[in-house]
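Pasting as-is:
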Amino acid sequence: MSLAAVAGGALLALAAGLVHRDAARVGVDSGSPTLWAGLVLLTGGVGAITALLVPDAPLPGVLVVVALGPLLYVLERDDSLHGDDDPDPTRLPSATRDASTSSDDGRGRTGTDDGRDEPAGTGDGRDQ
């Protein structure tokens, strides 16, 4: 067994272990952590076997097969974290609702819940 095969197998096992740990921590909605780790192992193994048994296989295609398992997991993880809420085009997904409604927009104005802009530092909108 070559050193490259051992290193590739260890890297694949490490990736599957990280996916299992993260899936258990996040609590993905679909499937179990073991299922997601198995999918990463399966796609990585199919890619490795394809590269070994079919020397003329195009490298981009092999990489797509290898990346399929982690990509599907990342998409499911994102869906589990953010849910099925309708997207809000006025704020970033990582922003909290409180921070987005009372933050300064850089022009000396803050956003209010009713959609009006008020000068920063005054709560009533009157000029001082």
